Amino acid sequence: MSEPMTGEGALGVAPGRVNLIGEHTDYNDGFVLPIALGARARVRAVPRRDDTVVVSSTQLGETVQLTDLSPTPGQWWGYVAGVVWVLRQRGHATGGVELHLDSRVPLGGGLSSSAAIEAASALALDALWGLGLDADALAEVAQATENDFLGIPTGPMDQRASLWCTAGHALLLDCRTLRGTQVPFALPDDLTLALVDTHSPHVLADGAYGERRAACARAAERLGVTALRDIDDLDAALGRLDDDVLVRRTRHVVGENARVWDAVAALEAADWPRFGALMTASHASMRDDYEITVPTVDQAVDSALASGALGARMTGGGFGGTVLALVPTGAMADFTRRVADDYAARGFDAPSVSTSVAEAGGLELRDAADA
């Protein structure tokens, strides 16, 4: 094996995200409202003298050496090495590289650990090779890694949230134009954004996600619109669909887009009860119309509301993951205890509760050999 280069390296750091509202709207050309988290993925890149790509992971304790990169679904190292492949596909001058991953974003929790890793890798490689990619290009490269290298048909939200969010703000992203607007999200001292990790890992690579995406595409085709975002009269549109599944999927997407805009208005007015009510309505729609919740997340929402939360909803692609709750700060201890007790009563594994504020997106550091 050729020896690695021991000179300067680069470091990319990118956060996970939670989507405050706007679920499964992204691949329907709709609107989303995520914030970046404090939990981050770090990827350190060091150049090599040959063309080999070496990927290692602190958490897994594994190292792989790759001499021939090609799209490979289902491999953990693909979220890192796949970025190199995408850059090469786009004609960027690249070489061999050692990439070391240290990610503190929980896997399978609906917090977009994959996008954090992809974004951190893109930032590290951009810095290492001096590619000069702007924020738009970095996000496109990171998303293409997931879509084209790993074969997961996710929309444009996660990587852009990881890269574009600013501290104290949510990112209102138009998933058709890919234009982002920063919306203030600074909770008052008497409110806390709680995250309940249900320890029910979700998997977007399975068939359920693809089935819902395909159903939305069929509904749009039958209605003669480019995407469900383009429906102006929901009742009329639903009356033209003779498939109950397509009715429910369409109702969720159109209603969820409207809830995103209502949530933006609530944030701008600092109307927290209204914002909480929209969170809860979003969860009900995901549960009943989009059918992507599971008993553990539904229980977390019910427990949150019973303990006095202003609102609660699942975040992420569904079938497990994390629940957000807008909880009065003084009620956090009771909230945490209530969720744990309710889980125990139903025989579920104990959940984990944390809190978050809106953090900043990714960053890159040159000459990061000692970082």
TrEMBL record:
Keywords: ATP-binding, Carbohydrate metabolism, Galactose metabolism, Kinase, Nucleotide-binding, Transferase
Domain Galactokinase N-terminal, chain residue ranges per copy: 10-41
EC number, as in UniProt: 2.7.1.6
GHMP kinase C-terminal domain segment(s): 264-339
Enzyme class: transferase
Record-linked Gene3D superfamilies: 3.30.230.10, GHMP kinase, C-terminal domain
GHMP kinase N-terminal domain residues: 79-164
SUPFAM superfamilies hit by this protein: GHMP Kinase, C-terminal domain, Ribosomal protein S5 domain 2-like
Pfam families in alphabetical order: GalKase_gal_bdg (PF10509), GHMP_kinases_C (PF08544), GHMP_kinases_N (PF00288)
GO molecular function: galactokinase activity
Domain of life (superkingdom): Bacteria
Family: Belongs to the GHMP kinase family. GalK subfamily.
Identification of the protein by name: Galactokinase
Organism of derivation: Propioniciclava soli
Gene label: galK
